[in-house]
UniProtKB/TrEMBL annotation:
Enzyme Commission no: 3.2.1.26
Pfam families, A to Z: Glyco_hydro_32N
Native species: Eiseniibacteriota bacterium
Glycosyl hydrolase family 32 N-terminal domain: residues covered: 12-215
Gene Ontology molecular function: beta-fructofuranosidase activity
GO biological process: carbohydrate metabolic process
Keyword annotations from UniProtKB, A to Z: Glycosidase, Hydrolase
SMART domains per record: Glyco_32
Full protein name: beta-fructofuranosidase
Origin superkingdom: Bacteria
Length: 406
């Protein structure tokens, strides 16, 4: 999981009403980089072994700040809503060159998401970062990880990846704090213990932090031979002197091949401590379980089989027909549906790149016709070639192929 041609990267796992929901960065490795990694995959399982892929979520918005790519989701649950933090990429040359910022979407049910109109944190908000939005690589600010602040009930800590203005050639982990409003953040400084002189890597990214028996574990990805690093401290925002020397995950579990992995994450469910990461050797997400030998040392084993009879629902497109009708003025997409449904209809090219959004919202029962005039969302006319009409609900997708001749 996922099925080809998709390759997963950073992921976040949450459980609701007995079902696991996995959101993950996904892309097509054979496609040009700028044409893919443009939406988050969404898969659902009752037992962590059998997965159903639902429709992807959080696509780029052509006229908004997150207009290019979407990466690195992380979900936290409050009493009323789920908050998904994600990295949105702004690419609008010459002012914004692959500029990374952190946004938020909220949902009551892990399916219907509402995005905030503006990012909640970016390098321009953090004075210690290296931040030139118009320069390639000078606006790196990504990989949000959010957790409750152990010092103050109802408060939160966010970790992220950024560049320091005094060492712009390397990436390290930074932190921010919130007093309760998950859309408002104040910088809490860099974690210098994740700088290159401590991690031996010019790239330290994808932070994950959790507590075990009074000790805080910081996991992250490096570009070392053994990529997953671990440090521990007595407080999650300790200064560099309070963190242990780096240990590699490979040293804890030498018989597990963790070298192809990146993006470490964890989740506690029913007393079980899950560990998961993207595994480039199999182009999938790998799930394991912590087994602790003492407060510092652990093994990773296959996860327990969840005792559940729940089946994963398949949001219905049963009986729905999607037919492209070619004409002199362009293409009409005819949708026949036996029931009213919430859906998106968009046009993609052969690389999977989203060209134009034709509809987002409720389609009435019966027949609807939606025209496409052959233009991309930016207004220019697309060339002749093969295109795809894609109809999506919250958990299913219908695709129709057609050829366009100018």
């Amino acid at each position: 999981m996922p099925t080809p041609p998709w390759r997963p990267k950073e992921a976040t796992l949450v459980r609701r009403q007995g079902l696991f929901h996995l959101y993950y960065t996904r892309g097509i490795p054979t496609a040009p980089f700028d044409s893919t990694w443009t939406e988050l995959g969404h898969a659902v399982s009752g037992d962590l072994y059998n997965w159903v892929e639902w429709a992807p979520e959080i696509p780029p918005r052509a006229t908004e700040w997150d207009n290019h790519q979407i990466w690195a989701p992380h979900i936290v649950e409050t009493d009323t809503l789920y908050y998904m933090f994600y990295t949105g990429i702004t690419h609008s040359p010459p002012d914004w060159i692959h500029h990374q910022r952190i946004g938020v979407a909220t949902s009551p049910d892990l399916v219907n998401w509402t995005r905030l109109p503006e990012p909640v944190l970016e390098c321009l908000d953090v004075p210690w970062t290296y931040c030139i939005p118009s320069m390639e690589g000078a606006g790196d600010f990504r990989d949000p990880y959010v957790m409750p602040d152990p010092d103050s009930a109802g408060h939160w800590i966010m970790y992220y990846t950024a560049r320091h203005r005094d060492a712009p050639g390397e990436l390290l982990i930074g932190a921010a704090r919130s007093t309760g409003d998950l859309t408002q953040w104040t910088g809490a400084g860099p974690l210098f213990n994740t700088a290159q002189r401590y991690t031996l890597s010019s790239v330290t990214e994808t932070p994950d932090v959790f507590e075990h028996q009074g000790r805080w574990f910081l996991l992250y990805t490096t570009w070392n031979k053994h990529p997953i690093g671990i440090q521990t401290a007595l407080h999650p925002l300790a200064d560099s002197s309070g963190w242990s020397a780096q240990q590699f995950l490979h040293e804890q579990v030498p018989f597990n091949n963790t070298d192809p992995s990146f993006g470490p994450e964890h989740l506690v469910v029913d007393g079980h401590e899950l560990y998961y990461h993207a595994n480039s050797a199999v182009d999938g997400i790998e799930f394991l379980e912590f087994v602790w030998e003492d407060s510092l040392n652990f093994d990773l084993i296959d996860p327990w089989i969840v005792d559940t009879a729940l089946s994963v629902p398949q949001p219905p497109l049963a009986g729905v027909r999607l037919v492209p009708v070619l004409g002199a003025g362009g293409v009409r997409l005819v949708v026949d549906t036996p029931r009213s449904l919430e859906a998106r209809l968009w046009i993609a090219d052969v690389s999977g790149r989203r060209i134009q959004l034709l509809h987002e919202g409720r389609l009435p029962r019966g027949r609807s016709e939606l025209p496409w005039d052959g233009r991309a969302s930016a207004g220019f006319v697309m060339p002749s070639g093969v295109y795809f009409a894609v109809l999506e609900t919250a958990g299913e997708r219908r695709v129709a192929r057609f050829a366009r001749l100018r």
